[in-house]
């Protein structure tokens, strides 16, 4: 394998966590690996709701932490919840200073939305449902002006090089349709900030590239993975046949939108006292049950918003227009879709992984904040908090910044393997059928066997192996957790055990479990 060396900190990914960390590392030289043009294809840019923070004088970080603990169904780390919510306000003010045009009241205060399982309106937003896109736009503009940051666009990380127990660099390849042979970039430190795993499922709200590759390559290098079984399904993806599915933000239900079925019946009041504002796992299962019963669940915004949906929630209105839906006159069909992975690479309070010289922030990490069921709009908040904490930790670990870190120039690379689209489609179907909203031992076992078969069909493709590694970890951890908790619902183990515990698993352990399930051959 060809290789180059750099004195720059390598950041894998180009979403909110990656951009914010790069800015916080300045003036330390940084090399950012982005599969697409900077700012495109990142989950952060698709986030509609906003950032949760106690900005109302009547609210508090302590109340925000309590809501986080309650939503997380017994597996949130209380110290991490307190740490993250205490920092939230400072990050909103920082993003404002960096140019994010948050919605403001005439008196200068922030417009705040209430979302499911929050006891206060505390979600800071931009133009209704444009928070992720506008925050990313502001950060990209800042990054383009930062002389310390080099961005390699059109390049995808495919693996980590571990030597003497520490991460020595990142293996990369061109991310176009032809791919390329791998190249090793040696670096003093690596920060993974490349998104989650929602695209491993056939129905998802995540961008097409977000298919567990970052978690997978860390796992393949030996990093410990935590809470892999906890995949959050968003209850109100717009059911219009698009892949990925557009999102009908939870803020619509915060504004008073009701869930109804094709018979015009509201079904959430009978399911939970908070009705449409119940925790996401509860609403997702109710939506899924309506879909399975052929009752076509829908979100009705007509009474609470009327024509205002067209101007106050432009992303939702645009998705409806593409699908030929007029939300001012008819309800919006919805379905439960894979949305956010609470699990990921296990990190400490400074974002350090179990491998030396490796840090992780954002959805690819598992910090202990989200537990079994992420509180709405805590995802972007966690990415901001841990991007800064990772940057500070990297600076402390490496000491004074290198004075001479020239930009990397990639050599010409010959073509290399790319994932077979048919195998990726097979993998997504297997995950939806076996490790989806409802799970049982039989379905998870079949899912793991199918993942093994997919992996064996193209064993020379690192990108596919990263996907199957994460899929294996999700399904194995789900099989091992013999209870129902938060987003993890086992129909064969419906009870919730008295003591909540986080799961921790290495890929080798998950593969051993998978191998034990494979049918014996004669």
TrEMBL record:
Pathway given in the UniProt record: Cofactor biosynthesis; NAD(+) biosynthesis; iminoaspartate from L-aspartate (oxidase route): step 1/1
Database matches in SUPFAM superfamilies: FAD/NAD(P)-binding domain, Succinate dehydrogenase/fumarate reductase flavoprotein C-terminal domain, Succinate dehydrogenase/fumarate reductase flavoprotein, catalytic domain
Entry annotated with the keyword Flavoprotein: yes
Pfam families to which the protein is assigned, alphabetical: FAD_binding_2, Succ_DH_flav_C
InterPro entries in the record: FAD-dep_OxRdtase_2_FAD-bd, FAD/NAD-bd_sf, Fum_R/Succ_DH_flav-like_C_sf, Fum_Rdtase/Succ_DH_flav-like_C, NadB, Succ_DH/fumarate_Rdtase_cat_sf
Cofactor(s) it depends on: FAD
EC numbers on record: 1.4.3.16
Molecular function per GO: L-aspartate oxidase activity
Gene3D superfamilies per the UniProt record, alphabetical: FAD/NAD(P)-binding domain, Fumarate reductase/succinate dehydrogenase flavoprotein-like, C-terminal domain, Succinate dehydrogenase/fumarate reductase flavoprotein, catalytic domain
GO biological process: 'de novo' NAD+ biosynthetic process from L-aspartate
Reactions performed catalytically: L-aspartate + O2 = iminosuccinate + H2O2
Coiled coil location: none
Domain Fumarate reductase/succinate dehydrogenase flavoprotein-like C-terminal: 464-495
PANTHER family (alphabetical): L-ASPARTATE OXIDASE (PTHR42716), L-ASPARTATE OXIDASE, CHLOROPLASTIC (PTHR42716:SF2)
Protein family membership: Belongs to the FAD-dependent oxidoreductase 2 family. NadB subfamily.
Protein name, per record: L-aspartate oxidase
């Amino acid at each position: 394998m060809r290789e180059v060396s750099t004195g720059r900190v390598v950041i894998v990914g180009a979403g909110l966590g990656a951009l914010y960390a790069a800015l916080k590392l300045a003036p330390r030289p940084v090399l950012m690996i982005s599969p697409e043009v900077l700012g495109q294809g990142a989950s952060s840019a698709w986030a509609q709701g906003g950032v949760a923070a106690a900005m109302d004088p009547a609210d508090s970080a302590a109340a925000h932490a309590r809501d986080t603990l309650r939503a997380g169904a017994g597996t949130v780390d209380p110290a991490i919840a307190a740490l993250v919510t205490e920092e939230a306000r400072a990050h909103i003010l920082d993003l404002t200073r960096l140019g994010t045009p948050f919605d403001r009241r005439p008196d200068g205060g922030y417009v705040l939305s209430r979302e499911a399982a929050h006891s206060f309106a505390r979600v800071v937003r931009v133009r209704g449902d444009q928070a992720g896109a506008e925050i990313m736009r502001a950060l990209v503009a800042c990054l383009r002006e930062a002389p310390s940051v080099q961005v390699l666009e059109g390049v995808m990380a495919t693996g980590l090089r571990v030597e003497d127990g520490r991460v020595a660099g990142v293996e990369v390849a061109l991310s176009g349709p032809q791919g390329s042979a791998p190249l090793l970039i040696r670096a003093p430190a690596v920060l993974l900030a490349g998104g989650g795993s929602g695209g491993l499922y056939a129905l998802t709200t995540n961008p097409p590239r977000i298919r567990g590759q970052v978690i997978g390559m860390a796992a393949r290098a030996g990093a410990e993975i935590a809470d892999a079984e906890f995949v959050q399904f968003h209850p109100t993806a717009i059911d219009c046949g698009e892949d990925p599915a557009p999102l009908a933000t939870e803020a619509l239900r915060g504004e008073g939108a009701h869930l109804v079925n094709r018979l015009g019946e509201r079904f959430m009041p009978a399911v939970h006292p908070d009705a449409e504002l119940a925790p996401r796992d509860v609403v997702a299962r109710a939506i899924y049950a309506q879909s399975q019963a052929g009752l076509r669940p829908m979100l009705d915004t007509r009474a609470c918003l009327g024509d205002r949906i067209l101007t106050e929630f432009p992303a939702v209105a645009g998705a409806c227009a593409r699908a030929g839906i007029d939300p001012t006159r008819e309800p919006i069909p919805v379905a439960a879709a894979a949305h956010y992975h609470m699990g990921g690479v296990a990190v400490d309070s400074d974002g350090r992984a179990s491998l030396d010289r490796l840090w992780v922030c954002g959805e690819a990490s598992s910090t202990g904040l989200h537990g079994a069921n992420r509180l709405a709009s805590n995802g972007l908040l966690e990415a901001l908090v841990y991007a800064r904490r990772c940057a500070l930790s990297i600076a402390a670990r490496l000491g004074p910044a290198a004075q001479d870190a020239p930009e990397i120039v990639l050599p010409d690379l010959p073509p290399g393997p790319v994932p077979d689209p048919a195998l990726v489609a097979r993998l997504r179907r297997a995950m939806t059928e076996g490790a989806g909203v409802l799970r049982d031992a039989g379905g998870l076992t079949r899912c793991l066997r199918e993942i093994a078969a997919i992996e064996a069909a193209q064993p020379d493709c690192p990108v596919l192996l990263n996907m199957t590694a994460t899929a294996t970890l999700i399904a194995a951890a789900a099989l091992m957790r013999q209870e129902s908790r938060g987003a993890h619902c086992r129909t064969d183990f419906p009870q919730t055990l008295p003591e909540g515990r986080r799961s921790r698993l290495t890929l080798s352990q998950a593969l051993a479990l998978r191998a034990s399930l494979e049918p014996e051959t004669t």
